[in-house]
Amino acid sequence: MCEESLSFPPYPTEPSGHDETVEVRVGTSGGNRVFELTTTAARRDNPTRHRRIGERPADPRILTGSPLFDALFAQAIDDARLNAVSSIRDGAYRHGEPIPCDCFQTGEKWTYVWTRDVSYATHLGLAVLDPERAAITLLYKVSPFRDGLALPDGLPVGSLQIIQDTGSGGSWPVSTDRVSWAFGAEALLATLHGTAHAAFADTAFRALSGTIEADRLAAFDPADGLYRGEQSFLDWRDQTYAPWVIDDLTTIATSKALSTNACHFKALDLAARLAAERGDTAAADRYAGWAADLRAAVDRGFWLEEKSLYASITTPDSPARPVETFDMLGLSLAILTGIAGRERARRILSAYPHVPFGAPVYYPAQPDVFCYHNRAIWPFVTAYELLAAVEVETVAAFDHAFESLVRAAALNLDNVENQEWLTGRTWFDDGPCISSARQLWSVGGYLGMVMTAIFGYRPAAEGFRIAPFLTAHVRDRLGDGRAELHGLVHHGRRIAIALNLPPRVAGQGHYALREVRLNGAPVTGLVADASLRDDNTVDVTFGDLIPDDAGLSLIPVVEAVTHDDPRVFSPREPLITDLVVEDGRVRLNFEGQPPRSGRREALLFTVLRDGEVAAADLSDTVWHDPVPLRPGIRRAYRVVARFEMSGNASHPSLEAAIEADAVLTIGVDGAGVERRDGRLIFADVAVREAGDYRLALLYRNHSFHIQTGVTNAVKRVEVFDAEGRPVASGIVQMPHMTPVNPRRRSTFLPMHLRAGRYRIEIDDFFNMSYLSSNATYISPGGMSGPHNKADIRALDMIRSG
Predict the structure, then answer these.
(1) Which of 183, 284, 351, 383 is buried most deeply by CB count within 10 Å?
(2) What is the DSSP string of 467-536?
(3) Transmembrane segments in this chain: where (predicted)?
(4) Mean per-residue pLDDT pooled into runs of 10, the chain (801 residues)
(5) Could you tell me if residue 192 is inside a domain?
(6) Domain with 685 in it: what CATH number?
């Protein structure tokens, strides 16, 4: 019996901190290895500190000089096996009754399938481990419209929709990251083969094309070329957005997110390639052109040169402005999709602030918010950082991510959902509020680290490539001799990969790839399926170490229990207390909110006027706008606070606006307003002066809770001039509202109008309740049928220029 132990130090200021140790002993049973793992760390929701894992001959397995590393890979395989189920369940569907599905559930505590979870998990590792089950799971998140419902105008005939799960304000298009599905689909198209590949490719194109066209209508902003919608994964409103968004979810719906736009880019890029394979040149050119335009728009809309980072989100204004918050998922996806070029990608990985045991998913941390997305490490995001580091050969970021994934899996004897950001524990201080065992994308992330990054297996439709990324640090962890990966199945053929480990070398870098041999013969580039036997061995030999001196940004050591230390937290957003108009000019009064405990740091303020910077680095909280008001034109202000020393910035304040004489309001009970064939028609809208206008509907939508549901009211608006000619059209949405709000404005439809009379027609578009997948949903818009209603009380025409 062989054994190994590894100790991990605590966070420096953790109360009663001490080293935690993991020990593994390896035995055999029936010719297969059995790993006995023991940890000294407390396991959340599990009183035992021991786990026994037996390898199975049919599963992938690794054999290295590190018994612990071998055991942790076996643990990820075992976690995936435990998540492989014959039925799933969720209380929101069929009243919690089992739903037959030979698929992967999301985790021990999450027994359903969610689009983003399975998509990222499949992309990270499940497509390689079990492509058939991963495909079933991914296809569960695709749906036609319900029987009897016509396909909305503008969607391709025969197309499908990717499901946006229940969520903020009644779901899509408040949230639009359902296109993350494209990451999983791309991975499966590389691992499926034969008729399974052909069938999946056909469904994937139908789902992507339908979704892309719907999102282009409902979520695309031609003003800046970006897609609107909530952040991908960071979708808990009061975790990573300003607190005031909870009372007005249209602000999330109109803001843009880096991660979500990276997903839209991937969907467009994949759809273009699938269209080309089908011989649909027009669609291929259309989607490829949109993808190229979006890549440029992301650079314009999110990149902050002085930070060497893309911002996570923008303000909900027009023009939108990047908010100085940052997230590792969005950054990693920007690197992996190629949105960020190599030079910029390496800057990102060096500049992003890391904590001792990983990368916080979101930075700076937000004060007054408990630990879940905020103040947390999520292994699947760390795995994406690791793959991004491989993409641009950034060794420090790779090694830090490697240690983070190994530490989490080892100490917890599990691929856990998340950890508190400083101590790396699954419970410390006030969270994370939930951390499920064997979280599916954490499992996929660990598998991807081993199979994709370290052993370099890169499947493709007609073969595979071998591109291992072996750093000096990881090479030290693997022991001596060879590191072997057995049990891969590539397009029906068995593959074993052996890394002939080079001599240990001091320094930071990765080893050059010298030679790859397939069954004894040297190969380069793509290893074609036609060259494979039933059983195949790939031997990899390395050359010299390629040095890499790129550094890693580490946050200061702060108290483990801090909730607002200015060195690592953002300031609380300012409060605008008053707008005073004096002789046609505005005096703006506002308040900063300094830290309530611990270190104090001076605040500086930036004033935004109509989305643009009007003044910066103010220390005074009274500001006189030198630009006079324009009569009859709306003006709006926000204020951003910044800590003078750390530079950490707040979310922008709640908007304060002057709308005197700038808004034409027409109530639904007024003359010339009628309801006909399900449409709401404002037959005679008089525009007195030419200019830029924003159309909004004043509404109430209390269909369901603000945090969930599928009944966001989504309407198509068409504007016609006096001769009946169309002059503007678009989609507006009216998300769920908190009960205390009597009415809100919908999202805006911008337009330029001449003076004259107009007819405005409002009709249904669609929401997620129209999909057959929600026919078993137990809340509004589910079993009772589609629901796309809001209590519209008035039309607002707001002059903005």
Answers:
(1) 383
(2) ----BHHHHHHT-SSEEEEEEEEETTEEEEEEEEPPPP--SSEEEEEEEEEETTEEE-S-EEGGG--SEE
(3) none
(4) 92 92 96 97 95 96 98 98 98 97 98 98 98 98 97 96 97 98 98 97 98 98 98 92 95 98 98 98 98 98 98 97 98 98 98 98 96 98 98 98 98 98 97 97 98 98 97 96 97 98 95 98 97 98 97 97 96 97 95 86 97 98 97 97 97 97 95 94 96 98 96 98 97 94 93 97 98 98 97 98 93
(5) no
(6) 2.60.120.260
**Cα gap 12→246, rounded to integer Å:** 36
User: Residue 343 and residue 101: Cα distance in Å, rounded?
Assistant: 44
- Cβ proximity of 404 and 473 under 8 Å: no
pTM for this model (two decimals): 0.98
Phi, psi (deg, nearest 5) at residue 352 = -65, 130
Q: What is the DSSP letter of 104?
A: E
Are residues 644 and 675 both part of a single domain? no
622 part of a folded domain: yes
Tell me, yes or no, whether 648 and 682 share the same domain: no
Quick one: 49 exposed, middle or buried, by C-beta within 10 A (0-12, 13-18, 19+)? middle
- Which of residues 636, 654, 672 is at a domain's end? 654
Same-domain status, 596 and 724: no
For residue 356, cis peptide bond before it (omega within 30 degrees of 0): no
Distance CA 732, CA 747 (A): 5
324 neighbors 304 (Cβ within 8 angstroms): yes
Answer yes or no: do 635 and 614 share one domain.
yes
Domain that holds residue 617: 572-654
Place of tokens 């057959």: 772
Q: How many CB atoms lie within 10 A of CB 151?
A: 16
User: Contact, 463 vs 432, CB < 8 A?
Assistant: no
Predicted pLDDT of residue 741 = 75
Contact 575, 590 (CB under 8 A): yes
Rounded to the nearest 10 degrees, the angle between the axes of helix 181-191 and helix 131-139 is: 150
Residue 106 has a pLDDT of 98
**What tokens does 391 get?**
């993409």
Whether residues 729 and 639 fall in one domain:
no
Q: Is residue 123 in some structural domain?
A: no
- CATH code of the domain containing 599: 2.60.40.10
Residue 683 lies in a domain: yes
Contacts of 442 (CB under 8 A, 6+ apart): 378, 379, 380, 383, 408, 415, 416, 417
Quick count: other Cβ atoms within 10 Å of Cβ 136? Answer: 15
Strands 493-500 and 535-547, sheet pairing: parallel
- Residue type at 264? H
pLDDT digits (tens, 9 = 90+) for 676-697: 999 999 999 999 999 999 999 9
Report the chain's C-alpha Rg in angstroms. Answer: 27
- 542's enclosing H/E stretch is strand 535-547
Same domain assignment for residues 631 and 732 = no
| Secondary structure, 3-state, 174-211 | CCCHHHHHHHHHHHHHHHCCHHHHHHHHHHHHHHHHHH
Please say which residue of 654, 679, 714 terminates a domain: 654
Q: How many domains does the chain have?
A: 2
Same domain, residue pair 668 and 747: yes
Tokens of residue 647, six digits: 């530079």
Among residues 452, 307, 308, 471, which one has the least CA distance to residue 393?
Answer: 471
C-alpha 315/C-alpha 320 separation (Å) is: 5
Q: How far apart are CA 35 and CA 617, in angstroms?
A: 59
Same domain for 711 and 728, yes or no, is yes
620: Cβ–Cβ under 8 A, 6 or more apart, which residues?
A: none
Cα separation, 779 vs 711, whole angstroms: 9
